[in-house]
Structures are given as C-alpha cells and as structure tokens.
Amino acid sequence: MAEFKTVRGMRDFLPEEARLLRHVEGRAREVARLYGYREIVTPVVESYELLSAKAGEEVKSRMFLFKDLGGRDVALRPEFTASVARLVATTLRNEPRPFRLFSVGSIYRYDEPQRGRYREFWQTNYELMGSSRPEADAEILLLTHSFMQTAGLKKFALKVGHIGVLRGILTQEKLVDKVQSAVMQLMDKKQYEDAFRLVKSAGVSETCILTLRKLVELKGSNVLDVVDRVAELVRDYEKSVEASRNWGGILDLVLKSRCDVDMTVDAGFARGLEYYTGMIFEVYVPGLDIALGGGGRYDRLIELFGGDPTPAVGVAHGVDRIMLALQEQKAAQKAEEKAGEEEKTVLVVPINEGLRGQALRVSEVLRNAGVVVEVEVMGRKMVKALEDADKRKMSYAVIIGERELKEGAVVVRNLAKRVQSTVKIEDVADVVKG
C-alpha cells in the first residue's frame, strides 16, 4: 500500500504545536478585544478577479487558482485584505465608521517551501477602515507591538517606511502605475540596481535617479531625524514632502505613547502588494531574516471594489513565524505552559470494570463544571493508569472506588504533589480548580 504524505508545502501540527498555534491565536484575539476590533470570518475561496485586483504580479503568480464546476475562476485566498475590503464595500457599506475588524485563519501561496515559509500558513489580520488620520496608522503600529509582547517575544523591532515618498517622486516624473508597481516589486526584493535601471529606461530626470539612490541609503533608529533628512532630500517633489510630514506625524504619535516601541525607518523600503498608498511596516526579530508580520495604509482599495471612498490601514501577522520566533528565543515552552496553565486536566479511573458507568457519570459532573476530563478507556490497572497520567503531565486523578461511592465520594489524587484525599463528588470540581 502507498505511504501517504502531506502535499508539498503543507504540514500537520502535532498536539504540542497545535497548542502553541492556538496560544498565539488566543493572544491575537485578546489584543483584538482590548483594541475594540470585532472578529469576522470570510471565505477561504474567493473569485480570482477580487483577489487579483490589486495583489501585485508576485502574489498573482503564486495563487492557488482553479475553475469551479460552473467554470468560474476562483482561488484560495493569498491574504485577508481583499476579502475584508469586499465586505466593507458591500454588506457593511452603510455601517458607521470607523470599522475595526479582526480575522484569523489559513492563507495559501505557492511559494518555494523553506524555513518559516509554507504554502499553507496562518495569519491574524487587523483592519482599521474609515480614518485617514495619523493616529489610525499609529494604532496599528502600537497594536502590533502589543501583540508581539503578549505572544511572548522577548525582542523584536518594527521597520517603518512610507510608500508615498517613493510614489510621489515617480508620479511627478510621470511614470505610469504599472511601471511604478514593477519598481516597487524590485525594491521589495532589495534589487535596487534593477529598479534604478527600470526607472531610467522610463525616461526620468537625472535628479530623480540621484534622489532615489540617496533615499535607499537613508535609514536608522533615530526615526524623526531620518524622516527630516528624507523631507529635505525630496524637497523638489511636493507629494513626497507631504508624505514625509505624514510619516513623521505617525512616528511622533507612537513615540508620544511612551510604549517603548523599538522602531527603525527605511526610506527605500517597499512591500509587494500594489494597494499600499502611505505608511508601510514590517516586524522582525534578531536571527530570523523573515518578517513576522507587516502592513500599511491603503486608501483606494474599497473604492476599487465598488464601495465609497474609504481610507484604511491594516496589518497581517504570520502565526507560524511567530511560533518559530518563540522557539528561536527559547520562549515557546513558556508560551505553551502559559497556554495550558489555566487548564487543570483530570483522569477519571474506575478501580474495576463494574464501575465504568460511575466513572462516566462523575466525568460528566466535572465537565459540566468546566473541568477538562479524560476517562481511562484502555482497561489499564490503577498503577499503570496513574503512571500514564503522570507522563502526560495531567493535574489530578479521580479514582472511583466502591467504598467511597457508598459515601457519595471519590479519591482525588494530586499527581504533582503525590497526595490524595477523599472528596464528596459535588466538591471535586472546586478542589481541582482551587
């Protein structure tokens, strides 16, 4: 018989990995709650037309694309934002602004599998729609900082750019959107010389090339100083100066929050998706050269899908990559323990087969009180059953014996402390929880 394996780029999560995955998701939901983001669930399969509208050539070339039985072009979602924008442009169009929307789930891209990169991966997604003000951009940066901390990461930094600075230069030099997007794709991959050649072939001024070359050198952690230098460098490009002011305003608000966000700015930073119009950013940890998350401002996407003009800013975080970073920083075990620390797990063991029904009855009493319970179903002797529970780091064993049942009681054994006592059935949940 053939040995079946997972499809390339997909993988199984074993219980420990699944628990870490759910831990990160749980922290993402908690951050969403604290910031006032409401969860929505959108389809994994969307029309190709929707997903490709402003995805960029790189993403379009890596979509899982197929025809449904009606002959329509559909694809597995390569990101969340297009689906959220569709929802806001249609079903939610008459709802009051701003929207704060949160999503979490699996994403699909036909990338070459490697460390931290899979064809099926998990993301958390936050969108703030309806405000063009810098405090909205600052909120997304602060939210990301809060999520990384809450997930358990010890060290991380945000790299912040502004696509409006580059777009302002290229637009004033009369480069069409398609060429601009191709330039951004090359800069996203740090292929700067190729980007400069493409710009030059479009017939731009020497000033433009010189400005772009100087721009990609401007970066650093003294963020407001670097942005001031950018504004001075692009002083001949009106829209770029305006973008620099917006960029500085966002960073100033983050600094004034006193949240101690570790930030660097990079004037030559670009991202692969075509729909960005303003501030963009990614989050990194030392030792990993892949971004754990990223996002930015996109003010024209809702309109593209037939909605009212709606400024928006958002971020997606890679759950798999956060898990990898936690493991790199030796924080994964702590995070897993934190994920399970609230749960006291109980094994219910009948001392003989005649008490199996009573074991099930007691287990249901405990579950109804919110206790996690497993019943011994392997027919093991008491000693073996307790050894197994100990190996699996369960909290308590509840032993069902005939003598105790006559008194409406059971034996509760604390597996960590190796002590036990006889407890009335109605009090077992309180003992376990307390």
Can you give a write-up of this model?
- With 434 residues, the chain is α+β, with helices and mostly antiparallel strands.
- The protein has 2 domains: 15-336, Bira Bifunctional Protein, Domain 2 (BirA Bifunctional Protein, domain 2, 2-Layer Sandwich), CATH 3.30.930.10; 343-433, Rossmann fold (3-Layer(aba) Sandwich).
- It is 43% helix and 21% strand.
- It is built from 18 helices and 17 strands.
- It has helices spanning 15-35, 48-52, 57-60, 81-89, 134-151, 163-172, 177-188, 192-201, 206-215, 223-233, 238-256, 301-304, 319-328, 332-341, 356-368, 382-391, 402-406, 428-433, and strands at 38-39, 45-47, 65-67, 73-76, 99-108, 120-129, 157-162, 219-220, 263-266, 279-284, 293-297, 312-318, 345-350, 372-375, 396-400, 409-414, 419-424.
- The strands form 3 sheets. A 9-stranded mixed sheet has the order 1-5-6-12-11-10-7-9-8, with helices on both faces.
- A hairpin with a 5-residue loop joins strand 3 (65-67) and strand 4 (73-76).
- Helix 1 packs antiparallel against helix 5 (134-151), helix 1 crosses helix 13 (319-328) and helix 5 packs across helix 11 (238-256).
- The longest helix is centred in the first third of the chain and has 21 residues, at 15-35.
- It is elongated.
- The model has no long low-confidence stretch (mean pLDDT 92).
